[in-house]
Design goal:
476 residues; alpha+beta; 4-stranded antiparallel sheet; 13 strands; single chain; 12% strand
């Protein structure tokens, strides 16, 4: 009968508005939940009731499904910018630390070099004074110690960067495992049930973290699995299965425990080299700082040290005057043909360290006034003998040291600026994403008032229908 239809329509309205209110309440409760996408109850009108002849009567309302407000296009943009942000953040932080350590070490190294040249200049003026040879020896030892400490600090930074790389790899593997488990749980929900929106939000959060760490490419299959590929390397997550990144240290030179950490993707078929295939994310930034900034800085420092030792040795080796006790005319520094590791292994000749009187001052034997060796070595302070490929004219020792320092400072300044710019881009994109998928308390408050008003109206409809039914029953 028609009154029953009124009551049923009213009941459907009560239930629909109640469920919509629950969805709104859930949105409000998760307003500060990270990665939460707001949900909306989709209300559908029931089919018309044609049990009353030619006149069709509405059948009420149903909640078809709960919709997750999510834009995959925006999500892909976020992932694309996240990998750049992670890369730039890692580089900016690492370069800040490198600049601080290098500034102290290289500035101190320049001062030690000046002291070395100054002591040789004093020796050239008073070649007969043994105390000045001792001073030259001490300043030479001090200078070699400065080169070694600076190289050791850079090597320690490289090892520290490797530790950060290893820690990030461990975190990547945990996130990959978590993502595979979420895929299993999401695809395990029966098709006739509501999609697990909260799990899908968590999955989006995990993949965003992965993008920041190494840069990833995502795809979905027909089962709603999210598959993750490391571009240029291989598959990290496929459905409910995941591969792992692993690390292995390669041999190095110089300080103890030197050598770089290399990355490999462990798959069921074996290990795939991955170090050069990860240019993005935090891992890409750390690898770039380690393999370019730190390594090239060490190489430049080695070339400077090797050029300096080679030049001093050439002068000292040809000397023979005023040795006081012998005709020793060997190398001033112990060195080797290659510049590799020269800064760390830089050392004063053991003979001179034991006996400073063997330090040569002139070229002619038994010529007290011959101070040409000491003068030539002291004049190296202003000679452009360091050839590093940047200039055909070469550079002085201090110019070379300052060039290394200014190069690091320039990289650091540029990295800070680019990172700040990328942060602004990311903030704008995330704000846009929140405007689409995030919870607006103002909007939810309006929805709540609308659902509450509709609920009250549906209740009044049922109350009116009940009164109508009671009136009819009283007439019988």
């Amino acid at each position: 009968m028609a009154i029953d239809n009124i009551l049923e329509i009213g009941r459907s309205g009560l239930l629909a508005q109640q469920e919509a209110m629950q969805t709104t309440s859930n949105n409000i409760s998760n307003v500060n939940t990270k990665n939460y996408s707001r949900q909306r109850a989709e209300l559908n009108a029931r089919g018309a009731n044609t049990n009353f002849g030619w006149r069709a009567s509405g059948g009420g309302v149903d909640v078809g499904r709960t919709i997750r407000i999510h834009d995959q296009f925006i999500q892909r943009q976020v992932l694309e910018e996240a990998k750049s942000l992670g890369n730039l953040k890692a580089r900016a932080e690492s370069l800040d630390r490198i600049e601080g350590i290098a500034h102290h070490g290289l500035t101190d190294l320049g001062e030690r070099a000046n002291e070395f040249f100054s002591n040789f200049r004093e020796l050239s003026l008073n070649p007969e004074l043994p105390a000045l040879r001792v001073a030259v020896k001490e300043s030479a030892v001090n200078l070699t110690d400065g080169f070694r400490k600076t190289a050791d600090s850079l090597e320690n930074l490289r090892n520290e960067t490797d530790l950060r790389i290893s820690a990030t790899v461990d975190e990547v593997n945990l996130k990959a495992q978590e993502l595979a488990e979420l895929n299993k749980r999401i695809t395990g929900v029966p098709a006739n049930q509501e999609p697990p929106h909260e799990l899908m939000d968590r999955r989006d959060g995990v993949v965003s973290d992965l993008a920041k760490m190494l840069g990833v490419s995502i795809s979905y299959d027909d089962r709603n699995d999210m598959n993750i590929v490391i571009p240029g390397v291989g598959i990290l997550v496929h459905g409910g299965e995941h591969n792992e990144l692993s690390t292995s240290r390669t041999p190095g030179h110089g300080a103890e425990d030197s050598g770089n950490i290399d990355l490999f993707l462990k798959t069921p078929t074996g290990f795939q080299y991955a170090t050069r295939g990860i240019p993005d994310g935090e891992l890409g930034g750390l690898l770039k700082v380690r393999d370019e900034t730190i390594t090239k800085t060490l190489e430049s420092l080695d070339r400077v040290a090797h050029s300096f030792m080679k030049k001093v040795n050439e002068i000292h080796r040809g000397a023979s005057g005023l040795d006081w006790d012998s005709d020793f005319a060997g190398d001033f520094f112990e060195t080797k043909d290659s510049s590799e590791g020269a800064a760390y292994s830089m050392k004063l000749s053991s003979a001179l360290e034991k006996d400073p009187s063997l330090i040569m001052v002139g070229y002619e034997s038994n010529a007290p006034s011959d101070n040409r060796v000491a003068l030539e070595i002291s004049s190296l302070q202003d000679e452009r003998f360091v050839m590093d490929g940047a200039s055909k004219e070469g550079a002085t020792l201090n110019e070379s040291i300052n060039s290394i320092l200014s190069g690091i400072a320039s990289q650091t300044h540029g990295s800070r600026q680019i990172y700040a710019h990328q942060s602004e881009i990311m903030d704008q994109l995330e704000n846009y994403q929140k405007s689409v998928s995030g919870v607006s308390l103002e909007e939810e408050a309006v929805n709540m008032m609308q659902y509450q008003a509709a609920f009250n109206a549906a209740a009044k409809t049922m109350h009116a229908g009940d009164e109508m039914l009671e009136t009819i029953l009283n007439l019988v």
